[in-house]
Write a structure and sequence with these properties.
This protein has 524 residues and is an alpha/beta fold. Helices cover 41% and strands 16% of the residues. The chain has two domains: 389 residues, 3-Layer(aba) Sandwich (Rossmann fold); 111 residues, Serine Threonine Protein Phosphatase 5, Tetratricopeptide repeat (Alpha Horseshoe), CATH 1.25.40. An eleven-stranded mixed β-sheet has the order 3-4-1-2-6-5-7-8-9-10-11, with helices on both faces. The longest helix has 23 residues.
Length: 524
């Protein structure tokens, strides 16, 4: 009969949750007071049926795929709730790692899987691990949601990380009146994330899925959405914002957008004009230039510097190195894992990080003047210890040069200013251009869908100025003149079409209808 493994017995005990040790001490201290709300926790296992996760052959085993092939989305929701109830312990968050890909596992399977995972990540002794994992948190499983509508924060974890890697921060925000929704960081077709554009866009698509899910929550005010990401999640959230204008603010916890400008460039569409939302960037203690060069991270192409159409706050936390932005890391690492700063000092810096995140969200999702003032202060003026925090605040230079900005300006000033406004935007950013096709489609939307021929004429005129060699631009302008009953102007435009393209059938046909050609089709 085999002897019992003491480590395994200990892990089984702690992973199942030992109530008698629920008040054991932990070296990590989250010093922020909870907000006015209780914190509820819900876990939903669902699939994104719009995306395949598994192919015909399992990429790991090589065997034919069994079961559901759609992308699994383990969805964790922290929300404002009624107070009271038994809170979860930290181990309950660790156990989530066992059901990220395979839903419906038994309690014994979850315990065994989590034991393997816990062994691989912790730096604590057996006793310290037991203390850390049985410590009560704030959240109560399936607590009664509080009445009201609350802003939504989507949390994007770091590379390969679980949805609860920053449970302390997520609970804190829920206690302050935010709904926080997270899912694990997984690759496109396996649990392992890949460090390429496909990997980023996979996590960005997960963010989009969670935004869609938020619309099903009665508490969620989906007019106010932010995306918060740590490390790899802090590049994926920028990609998501470039595609989704519903995202109104970004929080980056030492996000990879700072360290992988080449991947931003490779995407093409992630431009300052398309990421024109406020950003809070919580930065780790800066590396030396020599360290950056040695790691291949020294680049003059700073994405943060290029975000000129966004309010950007770069808040450097001098006691913190990159992994310190995960509270799971802080809870599971021994005190001797911290070098220049103690675990106590780093824990305090993490708590201040959470305060900055809260004030930023209050400022930009709740229009709170106090939050905006907080962001503009020095760390010491906000009450932080000296030498802990430095702040670099950069304000937006104005609305981004986009078609949306141009349309909004024309709606106020009048479409007769189309060429003037276009030139001004192009001068602000030479990369701003609208193609002939884009402008033509815009004109027809005004002409046909919105029944506004006068505005359509001005947009088509802009197209003829930008593309004077194109017969199609003048043909479209002529059509708009016809609709507006400007017959003589329509005739002149059609005649010009034929000077550019003598065989243009539509122009010849319309001139005949308008009585400006003889029976042989020649111009009168």
């Amino acid at each position: 009969m085999p002897t019992e493994d003491p480590m395994r017995s200990l892990l089984v005990l702690l992973l199942c949750g030992a109530a008698s040790l629920a008040h054991a001490a932990s070296n990590f201290t989250f010093s922020n007071a909870r907000g006015a709300h209780g914190v509820g926790l819900r876990v939903v296992h669902q699939y994104d049926y719009s995306r395949a996760y598994k192919g015909d052959i399992d990429l790991v085993t090589g065997l034919p795929t069994q079961g559901e092939r759609a992308r699994p989305i383990q969805t964790v929701i922290w929300y404002p709730a009624s107070k009271g109830g038994t809170p979860v312990v930290f181990n309950d968050y660790l156990r989530l790692s066992a059901t990220e890909e395979v839903f419906g596992r038994s309690d014994a399977e979850i315990t065994a899987e989590t034991a393997v995972w816990a062994r691989s990540i912790t730096g604590l002794s057996d006793g310290e691990l037991l203390q850390a994992t049985t410590r009560p948190m704030w959240a109560v499983r399936d607590a009664t949601p509080e009445a009201g509508r609350f802003p939504v924060v989507i949390y994007a974890p770091s590379f390969n990380a679980s949805s609860a890697e920053n449970a302390d921060l997520c609970e804190f925000l829920a206690s302050q009146g935010y709904i926080v929704i997270a899912s694990p960081d997984m690759g496109a077709h396996t649990r392992a994330m890949t460090d390429d554009v496909e990997g980023i866009e996979t996590q960005a698509a997960d963010i989009s899925f969670l935004i869609g899910y938020a619309h099903a929550l009665p508490q969620a005010d989906t007019r106010r959405i932010a995306v918060m990401g740590f490390s790899w999640g802090g590049i994926s959230n920028v990609f998501a914002a470039a595609r989704d204008s519903r995202i109104k603010a970004l929080v980056n916890l030492d996000g990879s957008v700072r360290y992988f400008p080449n991947l931003v460039d490779a995407a093409g569409y992630v431009t300052p004009s398309r990421v024109a939302v406020p950003m809070l960037y919580m930065a780790a203690q800066p590396l030396t230039l020599e360290q950056l060069i040695a790691r291949g991270k020294a680049s003059p192409n700073s994405v943060l510097n290029n975000l000129k159409y966004s309010d950007v706050y770069i808040v450097t936390m001098h006691p913190m190195v990159h992994p310190n932005f995960s509270s799971t890391y802080l809870r599971l690492m021994p005190a001797d894992a911290f070098a220049d700063y103690s675990l106590e000092e780093v824990s305090l810096a993490y708590s201040w990080t959470a305060r900055y995140v809260l004030q930023f969200l209050n400022a930009y999702l709740k229009n709170d003047a106090g939050g905006l003032a907080f962001l503009g202060n020095s760390g010491v003026k906000n009450g932080a210890p000296p030498h802990m925090i430095s702040v670099d605040a950069r304000r937006s230079t104005g609305a981004p040069p986009t078609q949306a900005t141009m349309a909004a300006d024309l709606a106020k000033r009048g479409f007769e200013h189309a060429h003037e406004v276009y030139q001004a935007l192009h001068q602000r950013d030479p990369k701003f251009e609208l193609s002939e096709v884009q402008i033509n489609l815009w004109g027809y939307e005004l002409l046909r869908k919105h029944k506004n021929p006068r505005a359509a004429i001005e947009i088509f005129k802009l197209n003829t100025l930008l593309h004077p060699e194109s017969s199609n631009t003048f043909d479209s302008l002529a059509e708009a003149y016809e609709v507006n009953k400007d017959t003589e102007l329509a005739i002149k435009a059609y005649q010009h079409v034929l000077t550019l393209e003598p065989t243009h059938a539509n122009a010849a046909r319309r001139l005949k209808v308008l009585g400006r050609t003889n029976g042989n089709g020649a111009l009168k």
